[in-house]
Amino acid sequence: MPVTVLLVDDEPLVRAGLRAILEAQPDISVVGEAADGAAVVPLVRQLRPDVVAMDVRMPLLDGIEATRAVLRSVPGPPKILVVTTFEQDDYVYQALRAGADGFLLKRAAPAEIVHAVRLAAEGESLLFPAALRELAAAHGNPRARAVLERAALTAREEEVLRLVAAGLTNAEIAQRLVVGTETVKTHVSSLLAKLGARDRTQAVILAYESGFVAPG
Amino acid sequence: MPVTVLLVDDEPLVRAGLRAILEAQPDISVVGEAADGAAVVPLVRQLRPDVVAMDVRMPLLDGIEATRAVLRSVPGPPKILVVTTFEQDDYVYQALRAGADGFLLKRAAPAEIVHAVRLAAEGESLLFPAALRELAAAHGNPRARAVLERAALTAREEEVLRLVAAGLTNAEIAQRLVVGTETVKTHVSSLLAKLGARDRTQAVILAYESGFVAPG
DNA sequence: ACGCTCCTCCCCCGCCCGGGGGAGGCGGGA
DNA sequence: TCCCGCCTCCCCCGGGCGGGGGAGGAGCGT
Questions:
Q1: What is the spatial distance between Cα A33 and Cα A36, in angstroms, rounded to a whole number?
Q2: What is the pTM of this model?
Q3: What per-residue string of b and e applies to A173-185 under the rule 16 or more CB within 10 Å gives b?
Q4: pLDDT digits (tens), chain B, 216 positions
């Protein structure tokens, strides 16, 4: 029995391309198409595909929400491959966290795409390491990163934030930086204001969420 | 010109297996072998392989340190694939953070291994999503995870820790849980003691480091 | 020389936080 | 039954923390 695939992309051209590549394989069958995320759940229920190739950026319901919706509402869900142009896309990371099984790069060779679909159907899938490193290092959620970037912290403030996020008290930071505790308090107050954080706890959270400090 | 590969593994059997699989390909050539990580850097300098297939667990110098050593000391370094038995291995994650380009599962089919080596040589590589999800979710450093596990927090304490790590004050947590602030204080004090944390800031750090709360 | 930003330090004040100790009710296991 | 762990609430107290304002010096670009 062939591997059945559902294509979800708002651009007909991309769907046509994927269909052409996949239908050329005797053991792969494209059983349906959808132009936006809202149509995915009913189609999955109806067609029961093995694999869903889903674009991330779509009108109405994006690939991330659509992935969540499918996994939440369909028992024995299909494998979901996220289709993307750039491997370092923020949305891809979010989709993977939402439960997607892997992704397809649009610029990948046809053979790669076919291979990825087959692997996904078998329970494995393809990932490219540049994206992996991105994941491991700078996978913070975009909002937190935006806050940190817009904050425009000074060098000293960044240094202090790093120490705050390491669990040091103001006195310890002062000792470490060889300045007065009053100075540290000034820096902390300043960076809290810039970050829109109420206290150091929230600043630490922001530091982790944004990837400013890396866990592990 | 063929893809050149250096094999690094302390078990001769594994080296022989990889050699047999890879040498069967006309465009792949195994140019050398090493039995431990300490021998890797000089061999890489001498042989200039395109790809290094390296075991993680080895005597003398493990795959993580060997990866760091190669990347630090060899200009225009080869692609490094970590060879492992279990995809959810902590060491694999560390190796990837150290700069490895991907990994090879020992139980993977020969064709997969060949494919991974070719992809690595081209600048891409294979990864399996189960490991990815592990990376995204539970990639906390083992020490922090151990602390959290040994802490044996009660259900209520875990709940409170989650809210502390969300940036709430004791009063807000009390309101959220519909209990008195004194009660929240008790829980917080208790979990701080169990975690060995001096204040809520350090508790939040531990929560992130251990993967108890997930960033993103 | 002027203005700007950054780093440094100081004051006062109020509050939330964390430590210590005590205590009652409620459930499960020895 | 009795004991123990968990959840709940209370007291006092000290200290670190955060907000407000002010101020001086160093470096930089104009």
A1: 9
A2: 0.57
A3: bbeebeeeeeebe
A4: 789 999 999 888 888 988 998 999 999 999 999 988 888 989 999 999 999 998 887 877 888 888 888 888 888 888 888 887 765 456 666 676 677 777 777 767 777 788 778 877 765 444 433 344 344 444 456 677 778 878 778 889 988 999 999 999 999 999 988 898 999 999 999 999 889 999 999 999 999 888 788 765
Kindly report the backbone phi and psi dihedral angles of residue A82, in degrees, each rounded to the nearest multiple of 5, phi listed first: -85, 130
Q: How far is the CA of A31 from the C1' of C17 (A)?
A: 60
Judge whether residue A173 contacts strand D, using its CB and a 7 Å cut-off: no
Tokens of A9: 């992309």
Contacts of A201 in chain B (CB under 8 A): 164, 167, 200-201, 204
Q: How far apart are CA A173 and CA A167, in angstroms?
A: 10
Contacts of B145 (CB under 8 A, 6+ apart): B138, B210, B211
B6 CB burial (10 A radius; 0-12, 13-18, 19+): buried
C1’ C28 / CA B175, Å = 29
Task: Kindly determine whether residue A132 and residue B198, on different chains, have CB atoms separated by under 8 Å.
Answer: no
8 Å CB contact between B67 and B94: no
C-alpha–C-alpha distance, residues B83 and A46, integer Å: 41
Q: For residue A202, give Cα distances in angstroms to A58, A206, B44, B81, B184.
A: 33, 6, 46, 39, 18
Among candidates A212, A215, A156, which has minimal Cα distance to A189?
A: A156
Closest CA to B82 of B94, B61, B100: B100
- What is the full DSSP assignment across chain B? -PEEEEEE-S-HHHHHHHHHHHHTSTTEEEEEEESSGGGHHHHHHHH--SEEEEESS-SSS-HHHHHHHHHHH-SSPPEEEEEES-TT-HHHHHHHHHT--EEEETTS-HHHHHHHHHHHHTT-----HHHHHHHHHH---HHHHHHHHHH---HHHHHHHHHHTTT--HHHHHHHHTS-HHHHHHHHHHHHHHHT-SSHHHHHHHHHHHTSS---
Using CB atoms, pick whichever of A126, A141, A215 lies closest to residue B209. Answer: A215
**Phi/psi class of residue A99: alpha, beta or left (left: φ > 0; alpha: ψ in -120 to 50)?**
left
CA distances from A24 to A18, A27, A33, A98 (A): 10, 9, 17, 31
Q: Is the CB of B201 under 7 A from strand C?
A: yes
